[in-house]
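> call design_seq(struct)
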């Protein structure tokens, strides 16, 4: 049974809304963006009292979800460039910053082979103060809803498992 893309988008948004702040306003009209999700996490470890801090670190993610019937190479490049241009200025590196990932997710019924190759090969990484203040990585993912297949760049290997669970949940 093939899944419907619009119904699957609702599942994706609902899944991300559990841990991410979903933003749907002030998004560009010329790109097929559905929503942006912001995730902020801070871990701290103390010894006996809060003033005796053993360590602290921050992990953040900005997710950009795009959906269309078909993606061209130009659209994919424009979407990724928008996510980088919009997400990187939001990174606030400091001594307790571990990482800030920028995830770009493309959801369509199917993809052309050259578009998939471009999504899989796209990468970006930036370190702050020689990685002492953390780093930022680009994670790209293509999700073909009709075939229930997922393609990612090397940094996004975990996204395959995540979307496999969402596909399985749709069949239950």
């Amino acid at each position: 049974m093939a899944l419907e893309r619009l119904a699957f988008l609702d599942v994706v948004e609902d899944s991300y809304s559990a841990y991410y702040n979903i933003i749907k306003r002030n998004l560009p009209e010329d790109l097929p963006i559905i929503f942006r999700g912001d995730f902020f996490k801070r871990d701290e470890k103390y010894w006996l009292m809060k003033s005796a801090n053993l360590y602290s670190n921050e992990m953040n993610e900005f997710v950009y979800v795009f959906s269309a019937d078909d993606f061209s190479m130009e659209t994919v490049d424009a979407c990724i460039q928008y996510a980088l241009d919009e997400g990187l200025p939001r990174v606030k590196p400091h001594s307790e910053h571990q990482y800030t990932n920028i995830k770009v997710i493309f959801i369509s019924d199917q993809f052309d082979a050259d578009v998939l190759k471009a999504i899989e090969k796209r990468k970006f990484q930036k370190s702050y103060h020689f990685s002492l203040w953390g780093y930022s990585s680009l994670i790209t993912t293509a999700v073909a809803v009709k075939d229930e297949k997922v393609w990612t760049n090397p940094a996004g290997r975990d996204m395959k498992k995540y979307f496999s669970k969402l596909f399985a949940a749709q069949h239950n």
